[in-house]
Amino acid sequence: MSIFHMTALAFIFIWLLPNPQAYGDYPDDVIISLPRSEIRVGEPLVVKLTYRFEQPQLVAQKLRDKPAAGPARISKTMPMDALFGVAPVGSEASEPVYHPIMSEGPLRTKDERGLQYEGHFVVFDDLHKDKILFNSPGSYRLQVVVARGLVSNELIIQVAPASDLETKALSILAGRADRGFVQTGKRDKTDKAQAARLERIVKECEGTLLAKFIAARLGLERVAQFQKKYPGEKAFWEFKARKHRGEVSEPLFDDAIRYLRLGKALPDEFPVREAVLVNLVGLEAVEDRWEVAEALLDELGTKYPCGKYGRKAARTKAELLKLKRDVPQQFGNQPDVPSAQHGCSARPSEPGTE
């Protein structure tokens, strides 16, 4: 019997999960795959989740002030409402540990009929115990369960011992608050020492997957803070002009670009990486690294063609090239800055992946 044979309580819990196909039918098939079949203790695991349907997934387009639904259209996204279960290989008698999928974005379809939807989620924190989920070497079974008990295929993930640097990084993480930041990017505002711990991991454990992931999280956090300080297109390009004239020093900008450059080194499958790339575009443009910004948009469109930002990469690049022509490379004492009418999304985007 599979380790994912559910207890009555687990089955009731899964039955009550929100219908992941609120816009259509339940999937006919649920498939998971692993970009990497082996990780080390202390490394986040990325899982690819795929829903397949026999019938196109249509959503009724509601018309304002009319009770009747409008014309049917394909729903391009759908929520990733599901559970994943984990248990060590060789412990058939033990109950698996079930966790809600904490996704940074919805499943997206690549076809025009809505027959297949794909997305990725990250596994790191053990929501039931005060530890990371894969805290010891060994083999683990992994499976996903969606509404009404529909079960995916079962996979084996190998967990190797942590390296010395990874062991050090884990020793710096202080409890659930820090693990929660790694998992979700949300900070514990009551913990005044958390920022120093996270920065220490990035600085002292550079090169580890955990340090890259934390750097990406911190970079997007700084971008959000930067946007609040310089809201809107006009304020953003005015900042660029003042920075070129040496009139402003902004730690938020310096930290954001430093962290995001480190976070860019994450493997492609990490959901947060798309947001890292698109936010780096605007920051590199501020530094007049236009070619780098263009290359980032090319990578965005190539690697994330169906993503929230990747599908707009070609249009954004065209706008960026127009700005490159229109914006003088050296502002000197000129007060002129690009007007907000450009509307170029090369300005840092809202952090996150929808």
Short account of what is shown:
This protein has helices at residues 8-15, 164-172, 175-184, 194-204, 209-229, 232-244, 251-263, 272-286, 290-303, 313-326, and strands at residues 29-33, 38-40, 45-52, 58-62, 69-74, 77-78, 83-88, 97-100, 107-109, 116-123, 125-126, 131-132, 138-145, 155-160. By secondary structure, it is α+β, with helices and mostly antiparallel strands. Helix 5 packs across helix 8 (272-286).
Give keywords.
354 residues; alpha+beta; Immunoglobulin-like; 10 helices
Write down the overall mean pLDDT.
83
Summing up helix and strand content along with how strands pair, one would put the structural category as alpha+beta
From the alpha-carbon coordinates, what is the Rg to the nearest angstrom?
22 Å
Total count of helical runs of at least 4 residues:
10
Secondary structure: number of strands: 14
Unreliable stretches: 1-23, 329-345
Strand adjacency order, main sheet: 1-3-10-9-6
- Proportion of residues in β-strands: 15-25%
Shape: globular
